Each structure stands twice: as structure tokens, then as C-alpha cells.
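G.,

No rush on this.
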Amino acid sequence: MPTVSVIVPCYNEEKTIAKLLGALLAQKYPREQMEVIISDGDSQDGTRAAIAAFCAAHPDLAVRVVTNCGRTIPAALNLALAEARGEFIVRLDAHSMPHPHYIATSLRLLEAGKGANVGGVWEILPGGEGWLAQSIAVAAAHPLGVGDAKYRYTDQAAAVDTVPFGAFRKSLIAEIGGFDETLLANEDYEFNARIRQAGYSVYLDPEIRAVYFARATLAALARQYARYGFWKTRMLARYPGTLRWRQALPPLFVAGLLGGALAFPWLGPLQIVYSLAVVSYLLAVLAAGLLAAGRARLLLLALGVPLAIITMHLAWGAAFWWGLFRLRRPAAKETSPK
């Protein structure tokens, strides 16, 4: 059977890294054909100790830790790729848990020629305790929150524009290059864009499944989506044809919301149109919250899910406009929203 290198960017993941390693230990794939390379950005919590404890308890799974001095995700991935010895690469995150057949299914689809990069569906779970963390997990998998990002909810296999994590032959890196270290987010989307530009396909199959732990607080969620929105502008500057409707809506929403509010006294009859649009949006997110609360039988989701969806939209959209502004100031130092 082919050799596989699992590469994992990591920073301060002591709460979940052992869960990931346990899920890799449970893979229905020969352990002697697997290696795990964790590219750690000098974690300041107990991540390294958790990895060492796992390795001591399970020496039959080859795990190596390399220090990512760059402390960014694309730098971590490229460092791990340089260390990888496997014929195939499987990328995972430190806050994920692949299902037992994740690696075997990914390699089967790659060898069948389904795509140059294959991935699957996230099963999103709360990243913390309580109703708010549960609300964020629901919102992160809801079409109203993520649009047509099929890897969060689809049950149909298809060629797509991007997949989460992904699995590919290591030889692909020699052909199209590694991950772009000038992007502090959207590096996976940019990687997949180059795959498609090279004439290959990116393939999503719901047989490939992994648990993904969502952010636990609204502040962490806002930082995550602000980073996505800010760095999306860099992606579009290079690949304008990659813009999808789900990505255009948050910036348009923020612009319309703010512009309408500032111009409201002068809108005249259009005040009614603006007000109806805002009310319709609020009713839509409230309906999503009520439906989620009914399914889970947890009343607080009726409040938490709308708060999470609104946070995602506002953070992504506002950071997108900030990113466009920064694009017009090339001399300014590039920093991601915190």
C-alpha cells in the first residue's frame, strides 16, 4: 500500500491535539505506511506535552514535531511538506478528527483519478461548553451562514472549487508549488485555484468525513471571519474569477447596511425599502435560530444562532472592505485582523 504523510499545522491546541492523534491511530489504514508531521508554531500551552504523552503511549504511530518559526499556516504546511516522506499527502488541522476511513477513502479516490486534490465534509461540533458554543457550531454549518460552501453540509459528490484540508500526491507540489506564504488565510483556496488552473479538478466526496471543532466564542468567531474576509481581497487581486456569490454577499450587506443607515434621513421613500430589507434579514436569521432551537430542544439557540450568523456576516464583510482599502496602500505593512 502507498505511504502517507499526514501534515498538521498547529499552535496552542492542547485541548484537541490528542483527539486528532487518537483519530489517526484509529484509521483503517496500515500504521506502518503512515507518518504524522505536526508543524508547531512554538505553542505556549500544553500542546507539546500532550503530543509527547500520546507518543509515549502509542509508539506504533510515527509522529514527528517540527518547529514552525514562521508561525503562519502556509509556512507550517510548507515546512511539513518538506519533511514528508510519503507518496501521498493528507492535510488535517489540529482541531479536527477524521473518521476511521478518512485516509483510505481519500487515497482510493485519488488513485481512481477523481481529482488531483480530494476532500470531504465537515461535521461541525462545538468548540466549547454551553449554548453559545453550540450556537456557533450550528451557524457554521447553516447555509444562511456559509452560503454554498458545500463541504459544510452536502451529501452529493462533485467537482468543486475548494475542499477543506485535502489529500493529494506529493508530486503535485513539484508541479504547481506549495502553499503561498504571503497569504495568512485562504491559502487552501489559492492552492486549489492553482490546481484548477493547471487543468486538474478538485473533488469533494461526502464519504470523506471529519469532525471539525468550531470557535467557542463570538469574539473568536469574529476574528476568524475577519481574517477570511481580509485575505480574500488578496485572493481576488490574483484570481478575480474565483469570486463566488456567497463571498460577495457579506461585503454588499455591510455596505448597504452602513450606507443606508448614514443616508437614511435623505432616502425619502427609499426609507421603507431599506427598513424592509433590514427587517427581512433579521427575520431570516431569527427563523434559522428558532428552527435550530426546535430541533435541538434548546431555547437559547433561538438567540445564539442569529448572533453567530450576524457576527460571521459583519466580520467577513467589514474586513473585506478593509482589505480592499489596504490593497490601495501597497506601502503599508500587511497585517491580518486580530
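When you get to it, here's the other one too:
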Amino acid sequence: MNIVMSDLKKLTRKINTVILIMVFGLMSFFLVSHAMFLVWFSIPTALIYIFGYYLISKERLDIYLRMVYGWLTLYMSVTTVCLGYGFGFHLYSLSMIPIIFYSEYMAYKLGSKSVHAMLYSVLVIICYLLSTGYSAYVKPVYVVDSYIAGLFWIFNSLTVLGFVTFYSWILIRMTIKSDSLLSERANKDPLTGLYNRHYTMEKLKEAYNGDKPRSIAMIDIDNFKLINDGYGHSAGDEVLKKIASVMTEVCGNGTIGRWGGEEFLILFEGTPGIIEKLRSTVEDTVFEFDGRKIDVTVTAGVASMDKEISLDKWIIEADEKLYYGKNNGKNRVVC
């Protein structure tokens, strides 16, 4: 959460700086055009964004957004009434609406107050219709050369399109990232980082219905209860995590899942030699917790896919071979 807030503060600070620079630039234009009311109106506008740095530093982005939305809507309406819609200032309402909804999403992600995106968007639309409607039927307060108006329309159009594109890109990235995180949480075991039983079962169904020859290895940590009783459950958790790391290192090309407790299932291609390598690697790996060495070994039962039997029978076959190995010396692979 802190990382999200930090990134959001940096992004907001950059955007605030860009807008503040634009305000000073427009203020200079208004001065040259003798639009004195807009010159004076630019002063509180600049102060709003200067104060925005303080709110950003204090992580009060909810207040900052409300302040900026309200003032930007007012600024858009005033400049449109004073100069006419030929300058394109009214177009900023088009960029505000997706930004408002993006802010609502970020408020949800950060657990802060709702921005009330729909209400703000309706207010923006009302101000847009009133200001452009007024400009369409009433002469602008200030008359400026049409060539300059055209240049401003192009500049404001490009700025608005840039903001809309930029925020749409960010929102899509955020959505993809969130979906990936949700998918990972749904499919991964939180302790070991391996796939959970549900996802592993789905991969088994895919393999069983496919054409490639596959095998499964049902693997169990030997004497795991004694490890928990003798060293504590925290030590047991560390053993599970390290076993998972070894499995990923040795059998990374397969699908590795935590089947339940201290039991794992690996779906793989090729010969059972890879499972024997896994067994020997675990035996040679040093497991320590609080300075105490823990002897850890595993037993595995391997069964090749056979379309003559059902998927459940395939799993049962591997399970039966595992328990044969457990009852006949442990620390071995039974094929």
C-alpha cells in the first residue's frame, strides 16, 4: 500500500507541476491579450496548485482532487465564457471525466474516501453545457484574433487528448495488474508460493485430456509431524517453503502444486529420473531453523498417464505408490 501511495504521489506531483506551468503560460497570454479579468483570475488558480503540493506531501489526495476538480471546472467555464468556445478550453471537461473515474478507482485501492465520481461528472457536464451554450448565443467578453484562437484550439485539443490517452493507459495497466494479482492469489498457496490444489487439479485435467505423455509424482515430507513437534510449527513452515524452493529449482518445467499439508503433486514430462534428482537434492540440502539443523527427506510415488484408467485412478495410483514408499523405508521414489 505504501508503494502504491508513493507512486501515486509522484504521479500527482508531476501532473500538478505541468498544470501549474500551463496556468502561468496562459496568464501571460491573457496579459498580452488585455483580458485582465482572466489575468487576475489566474492568480488564485496558481495558488490552488501551489497549495496542492502541500496536500500531496501530506497524502491528502482526496482533498486535493476535490479542490482541483472544482476549480478546474470553474476555470474551464470562466475562460469559455470570456473567450468563447473557439479556444477549446471547454474540451478539458472531456479529460476530467475519465480522470475523475480513475481517481474513484484509486480511492478504492487506497481505502480512502470515495470521490463520488458520478456526481462530479454530472456537475462537469452541466458546467460544460452552460458555458458552451452561453458562448454560442452571446458574444464573448474578450475578442481575440481568430488565428490565435485556432492555435489555442489545437493546443488545448492535443493537451486534452494527451491526458485522456495517458490516464486510459494507466487505468488499463492498473486493471491488468489487479487482475493478475487476483488470479495469482486465487491459484497460489500463500505459504509456499506454489500452485494450490484447485489450480493443480485443473492442470491435471488439461494434461489428461491432452495428447502428450505425462506423469505425476505425489510427494510427501518424511516425519513432518516430528519436525513440527520437535522444532515448532514455525520451523515446519520454513521447511515447507524451502522444499517448495528446491522443487521449483529442480522441477521448474513442470506444474508444482501443494496438494495439502506436507504433500505435494508434480505434473511433469519425461522420465522419473527428475523426481529421483529432487529426492536426492532435498536429502543433500541443509535445513536450519534458529541455528538448529533439521534432517529433511521426501518420499515420492510416480505414475504415468494411462488413458485406460480415469483421472482419479491416475492420482490414486501415484498416491498408493507414495504410501508404499512411506511404509517401506521412506526417502525413496516408487515408480
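Residues 2-187 form one domain. The first strand starts at residue 215 and ends at 221.

Enjoy the weekend,
O.
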